[in-house]
Write a structure and sequence with these properties.
Blueprint: H1 11-15, E1 26-37, E2 45-53, E3 61-62, E4 67-72, E5 75-78, E6 80-81, E7 88-90, E8 102-108, E9 113-119, E10 128-129, E11 133-137, H2 142-145, E12 154-157, E13 166-172, E14 199-202, E15 210-213, E16 222-230, H3 233-242, E17 260-278
Parallel strand pairs: 1-17, 11-17
Antiparallel strand pairs: 1-2, 2-3, 2-7, 4-5, 4-8, 6-7, 8-9, 10-12, 12-15, 13-14, 13-16, 16-17
Length: about 280
Amino acid sequence: MPRKYLIIFLIPFLTGCFETELNFEDQFEPVVEAYIYVDKAVDKIKLSSMISFGSDSSGGEMITDALISLEKDLSVWFLDHNNSVPGSYYLTDSPKFSPGDTLKLRVELDDAVLTAITLVPDSPPAVTKSAASMYIPKVYDLREFKNIEMPEAVELSWENPEANYYFLNIQNIESNPMAIRPEVPDGMPAGRGPGDFAFEMISQPTNSNYYIIEPMTLQYYGTHRIIMSSVNEEYVNLYSSLMQDTRELNEPYSNIRNGLGIFTAFNSDTLYLEVIPVY
């Protein structure tokens, strides 16, 4: 899923290591979060600012007045700002992207120009499911649930001779799903907004040729949409940098020139899994 990342500056810790006071100049850093999905609207472009060290600001302020353009070959599209979601930009056009296309992002600010390049990855391979449905007993007592016999896991497999990277997004798409575990209430969890899912699980990038869906990882019965996406090296590098030891001070990977953040493209395919109650 792509995920958001945090940049943490350990100023109190660092300054405590020195007897003399450390002085840092304010540093304004624009942060780009731009994801392009093949065959989907271009509306996952976010722009914010970060002020580090010498400022009292905690950062994360949205940038709403940038001039952002997307290029492919000789075509150029200019993005509009979404006033209802500050810092979010979108295209009114619906350009078509194909595997191998080179995409260029350009962000113009008052005193800086940010650029980035990415390639549209190949379509993901065909996926084989070990089963189309998963049958899980329905019980209403937690003690009884602990003793039920769970079905076998569902294995997703595909050809991957070149060890390309993919990630999977598993979503329960029921509007009012029934919970599998007795302590989980039926229906949509509190705080979920329109378009959200009762259950969603995103895997880490993998260059394997299979993925296992364990029944104990699921929370609700019903239809589950499984979106498998091809990813580029920059997304793998970003994910790896986010998973680094928290004691390290390396900032997350960025492929934005003259700024921070990520610009990358995904190519996806969809399959479904039914999780059925057994009474």
